[in-house]
Amino acid sequence: MTDRRILRLSGPDTIDFLQGLVTNDMGKLKQGAVYAALLTPQGKYLADFFLVPDGEAVLLDVADALGEMVVQRLSMYKLRAAVEIDVVPLHLHRGLGAIPEDGFADPRNPHMGWRAYRETPQTDDKIDWDALRVTHLVPETGIELTQDTFILEVGFERLNGVDFRKGCYVGQEVTARMKHKTQLRKGLAQVSVSGAAPVGSELNAEGKIAGTLFTQSDGKGIAYLRFDRAGGTMKAESAEVAWFGETETN
Fold first, then answer.
1. Please, which residues have CB within 8 angstroms of residue 95's CB and are 6 or more apart in sequence?
2. Rounded to an integer, what distance in angstroms lies between the CA atom of residue 12 and that of residue 57?
3. What letter would DSSP give residue 43?
4. pLDDT tens digits along 228-249
5. Which of 4, 59, 83, 236 could bridge to 11 as Cys pair (CB 3.0-4.6 Å)?
6. pLDDT on residue 183
7. In the predicted structure, residue 250 carries a pLDDT above the cut 90
8. Do the Cβ atoms of 97 and 74 come closer than 8 Å?
9. What is the spatial order of strands in the sheet that 84-87 belongs to?
10. Would you list the domain boundaries of the chain?
């Protein structure tokens, strides 16, 4: 897959450096791949990525469109930490079924298969990943995941992308407050879709903006909803959309 950028972080301070920046606990690398995000100090999403062990180093797998920004942000925080950040010529391979020897289970959801990092591009990926994402309510970088949202609104706790016991990281205070002191009024949900609408179409309910419709597949879709307005039949362009009051799927 060519839409990912693979970074290698190496050096004796790598784990501690990441531990103070990202939303998940780097201790989980001992069990396999870790899904995490980088946030602004105000707790808003900047980028999501996968972290996997690579000997004494760590590979960071991020959407290519966000790669340069992530390198710049990590470099800004590096200061005197003994950490090297390099772009490496590896390619993401994905699949379903048995995990290969060099692969890692996707930590977001077991139905999302495995990921591996190899020197040659993947040429045989015929899996409809969007259909799987819609079925299991898994957001994608640059589609459902944008820099206008908070990670708890896009399901990061359900996706194993945040750890509330790990201690401080950039944006932690806001995230913890949303977890413990507020009830989410907006967030991702699976909806039924009759017809089709462009990704990013505005959802309207009784003349009021109720959210945004994103990825669609086989009569279902992922939508970002204002829960107090999302009821009954909603419209997105010429499509009719309905929400059944649930924000998570198994």
1. 103, 113, 114, 116, 125, 127
2. 9
3. S
4. 999 888 999 999 999 987 654 4
5. 83
6. 83
7. no
8. no
9. 34-39, 45-54, 57-63, 4-10, 84-87
10. 4-179, 185-243
In the three-class reduction of DSSP (H, G, I as helix; E, B as strand; rest coil), residue 196 is classed as: coil
At residue 15, the pLDDT reads 97
Is there a common fold for 4-179 and 185-243? no
Collapse the DSSP code of 180 into the 3-class scheme (helix H, G, I; strand E, B; otherwise coil) and give the result. Answer: helix
Share of the chain above pLDDT 70, in %: 97
Tokens at residue 121, please? 């591009």
Q: Are 52 and 37 in contact (CB under 8 A)?
A: no
State the pTM of this model.
0.94
Determine the topology of domain 4-179 in CATH: Gyrase A; domain 2 (3.30.1360)
Q: How far is CA 133 from CA 63, 215, 229, in A?
A: 16, 8, 24
pLDDT of residue 181: 77
Q: Which CATH class is domain 185-243?
A: mainly beta
Pairing of strands 233-236, 220-226: unpaired
